[in-house]
Amino acid sequence: MSGEPLGRRQRQDALSRTALGVFRLNGQFLAVSEKLAEPAGLTAAWWQVLGAVLPQPLPVSGIARAMGITRQSVQRIADLLVREGLAAYEPNPAHRRAKLLAPTEAGRAAVRRIDPGHAELAALLLRELGGQEAFDETVRVLERLSEALETVSGEFRTPEA
């Protein structure tokens, strides 16, 4: 047995299990999102970007920040959405060069076609999790984990080899 304190191994195991669980969840959400989006003529990624701009137009960098992915990935998807007529670039009064991405009526209609399947999946998850209170707690835990990781990622430094 190594000389490592048990607490250190427990923390590392908890981190590994958390990461693996989140990676698995990510894959599961992507798979179900593809199923939900396909009948609307969207991909999960297109739906994700359109969903980010439904409340209000945003610059590509703002979408990327909200989604936790690279600006380049969002830019590629945004350009495809514009080419397909599902979104449009609008002038940004706050920044001349960083245009805002906004959904078109066709983009809004495509997202609306996802709503029935989205509502059904939400109801199924609500039942499986044991009710609204448990579902809300699940959301709070995931949001807290994301906030915590964002906070500590600025403090974390890779040890020298």
UniProtKB/TrEMBL annotation:
One Pfam family per UniProt: MarR_2
Domain HTH marR-type: 12-147
Domain of life (superkingdom): Bacteria
Residues in coiled coil: none
InterPro entries: HTH_MarR-typ (IPR000835), MarR/SlyA-like (IPR039422), WH-like_DNA-bd_sf (IPR036388), WH_DNA-bd_sf (IPR036390)
Protein name: MarR family winged helix-turn-helix transcriptional regulator
Species: Streptomyces wedmorensis
